[in-house]
Amino acid sequence: MTKSVAGELTGLELPIERGCPFAPPTAYERLREQAPISKVRLTSGGEAWCVSGHEEGRAVLADPRFSSDKRKDGFPLFTLDAATLQQLRSQPPLMLGMDGAEHSAARRPVIGEFTVKRLAALRPRIQGIVDHFIDDLLATDQRPVDLVQALSLPVPSLVICELLGVPYTDHDFFQSRTTMMVSRTSLEDRRRAITELRAYIDDLLTHKESEPGDDLLGRQIARQRQEGALDHAGQVSLAFLLLTAGHETTANMISLGVVGLLTHPEQLALIKAEPDKTPMAVEELLRYFTIADGVTTRLATEDANIGGVSIKAGEGVIVSTLSANWDPAAFKDPAELDVERGARHHLAFGFGPHQCLGQNLARMELQIVFDTLFRRIPTLRLAAPAEDLPFKNDAVIYGVHELPVTW
Amino acid sequence: MIRIKADTDLCVGSGQCVLTAPAVFDQDDDGIVALLTDHPDDQSAAHARQAITLCPSRALSIGPGHGAEEPRAGRRH
């Protein structure tokens, strides 16, 4: 195969929709083989570098010469309308959009909440939440059941309640609004849910400022008081960020993980026989589906040579974590779902200083859900052919809208 | 025998090292990497090497002066 000259436009436009529900767009394979760093067009206009190789992707994401600040001129954006730009430039950036010392100052106060030890202490609560929804599933006579509504969405919603210290009496409100926020309802419904959740979090925080509890927000308040400055608006944004980053993503991975395991019964049998293999299976499912592709975008702030390609200051870079996770140089036979392969080096949570803050919480939720679901409902099966499921082909976060199951 | 180094300024608290080599790495209450030992035994060293490649902020490395001439290497038990 002839290699194209790096920098030559490939004719590819990003973002691309997934065609086959169980594989990345074939265009990525062509890019990886021809030039793992190559120029592409963006559907929003303009061009950027698309990084499709695993090693090259890691190099860019760990390199401080690449900025995450979406407000900078030339930053590769998939939506360029005036309203989006105005919103982007008028609001203070979340930690996702910060660089260097500023990013570190925003992330550091929160990372203590997500240590492996602290999360281990949360495990019994998460197990209780998962068991509760599976109790409900087993109690119903209805068949088939939509697993998205019955398990995938409510579990992470209640885990976030637990994390933020949302009182029990408000769980139903919180869960219904978070579900509405990510469902196929009208734009108006989704906007209303977001507004109501923001107002709720604002009130919750005000309440916690007078009575800080032993939870993430309570500890953040105590820490800020100690440092002498309470940042109410900043804490509302942080709570909302944890909600938006941790809810739909985890829900989609629960659904897709169930689909992945049910369509690969020999792989499912491995973890049923040896639950010790579930953590590795979770890594492989994260790799295989890589639900957040095209989220890791950067802007070069200095000239940089990555993998022999010269990227100039001011040029945009899009790292395709999906393509990287199907790079045969890093994962042999990437199209095989192999729960025993040891896929820990996947980029599904990103790489570099912005790597997912809640990754170990997500891991734990997925491990508990898969173990518990298939142990308690061993005859669980899809109630529709896998290829006919309504996959979220054009969504920022890949998933399924509905997942009819029976047993 | 290898010597592990951890840069607490670079650490972003992803916890990958603790998951990968729990005999070598821990996190303090603020989530920052803490070394349980900087001279891991052979089995832990293999895990520590994997942790070094997985660390997203490149905060971990194998330090200089490893090998038999390292004075502390003799303290292995």
TrEMBL record, chain A:
CDD domains: CYP105-like. Keywords: Heme, Iron, Metal-binding, Monooxygenase, Oxidoreductase. Pfam families: p450. It comes from the Bacteria. The keyword Ribonucleoprotein does not apply. InterPro entries: Cyt_P450 (IPR001128), Cyt_P450_B (IPR002397), Cyt_P450_CS (IPR017972), Cyt_P450_sf (IPR036396). Belongs to the cytochrome P450 family. This is Cytochrome P450. It comes from Nonomuraea antimicrobica.
UniProtKB/TrEMBL annotation, chain B:
Coiled coil: none annotated. Ferredoxins are iron-sulfur proteins that transfer electrons in a wide variety of metabolic reactions. Residues 67-77 have a biased composition (Basic and acidic residues). PROSITE patterns: 4FE4S_FER_2. Its cofactor is [3Fe-4S] cluster. It comes from the Bacteria. The keyword Ribosomal protein does not apply. SUPFAM superfamilies: 4Fe-4S ferredoxins. Residues 58-77 are annotated as: Disordered. Residues 2-30 form the 4Fe-4S ferredoxin-type domain. The keyword Metal-binding applies. InterPro entries: 3Fe4S_ferredoxin (IPR001080), 4Fe4S_Fe-S-bd (IPR017896), Divergent_4Fe-4S_mono-cluster (IPR010693), Fe-S_cluster_ET (IPR051269). Keywords: 3Fe-4S, Electron transport, Iron, Iron-sulfur, Metal-binding, Transport. This is Ferredoxin.
